[in-house]
């Protein structure tokens, strides 16, 4: 009843949306928790090849796995306390997620064909334009491509050269790092 004594009731769509939102949150939480545990277990199974500094290729995946598990646990606590606010996912949002998954699969396949840094640069442009919906002029697209190449080369330097985690080599990585003998 409202303040004037008239009866009020929730519409079926409001009740359905609340149930759908709770079910979506529960399913998403279970999936994220399973992925976090899977990632952390696989990070722990990596070979321990520490360098003189005590840092090896196992450290980064282990830290990412711990952070992923902790943020998932914080999300579970927030959901159980009723503090997590949510709404049903729209069809266009679902399309963006699916397109992001397709692009990531193409990125994963293309790193072996054209190299890590080159694939990262192309992936960054395509993701910016299609998943995030940013309209890029030619100048901005070239700028995003350039930044993607720089970030890809920095990641290649960190993982392949310094941590000795082999990444697929493309023509740019060969030109920059191949001749240096690093």
Helix content: over 70%
Topology order in helix (H) and strand (E) letters: HHHHHH
Unreliable stretches (pLDDT < 50, length at least 5) are: 9-16
Overall geometric form: flat
Instruction: Let me know the largest β-sheet.
Output: none
What is the CA-CA span between the terminal residues?
A: 75 Å
Class inferred from helices and paired strands: mainly alpha
Figure out the total of helices.
Answer: 6
Quick check: average pLDDT?
A: 77
Q: How many distinct beta strands?
A: 0
> Whole-number radius of gyration?
23 Å
Sheet-strand content, in percent, reads: under 5%
In short:
The protein is mainly α.
Topology (SSEs and partners):
Blueprint: H1 12-44, H2 59-80, H3 91-114, H4 116-131, H5 138-162, H6 171-178
Descriptors:
182 residues, mainly alpha, 6 helices, 70% helix, single chain
Overall description:
The protein is an all-alpha fold. Helix content is 70%, strand content 0%. The radius of gyration is 23 Å and the shape is flat.
